[in-house]
Amino acid sequence: MESNMIGWFEIPVMDMDRARKFYETVFDIKIEVENFHGLKMGLFPFAEGKQGASGALVSHPDFYRPSESEGPLLYFSSRDVKEQVDKIEAAGGKVLQPKKMISEDVGYMALFVDTEGNRLALHSRQ
Fold first, then answer.
1. Residue 56 class from Cβ within 10 Å (0-12 exposed, 13-18 middle, 19+ buried)?
2. 124 beta partners
3. 7, 21, 26, 44: which is deepest, by most CB within 10 A?
């Protein structure tokens, strides 16, 4: 294999402005929104040559629907899961599982629901 299995991700949203504000607040980042022929994409920052994939918030009524219980579970990498967990509810999301040790070898995780109703996760080594 020449690269990691995941090269891009897309998170469905119903309200791009609300979703962008949530992710910018929780992760202290800037998301640029583009319109590609009716498909709105809020592009997460991309660090060329760094580990991990980038992706986008996506909004299109025919193809993307948020889900709190179905579909793949995306884990965001974090320095310390607690940093983001502490911001989620104030930003309009809901914490489903606070910071919890998976194992000493793997690290920690947390589950949350964003402002659009998507179930997502966080992972950190500490």
1. buried
2. 108
3. 26
Instruction: Report residue 82 as tokens.
Output: 């607690």
Query: Model confidence over 15-29: pLDDT tens digits?
Result: 999 999 999 999 999
Under a CB-based contact definition with an 8 Å cutoff, are residues 108 and 102 in contact?
A: yes
Phi-psi region of 66 (alpha: psi -120 to 50; beta: other; left: phi over 0): beta
- Stretch (H or E) spanning 24: helix 16-27
What's 62's DSSP letter?
T
Cα–Cα distance measured from residue 91 to residue 21, given in angstroms and rounded to the nearest whole number? 8
The answer to whether the pTM exceeds 0.85 is yes
Strand partners, 76: 122
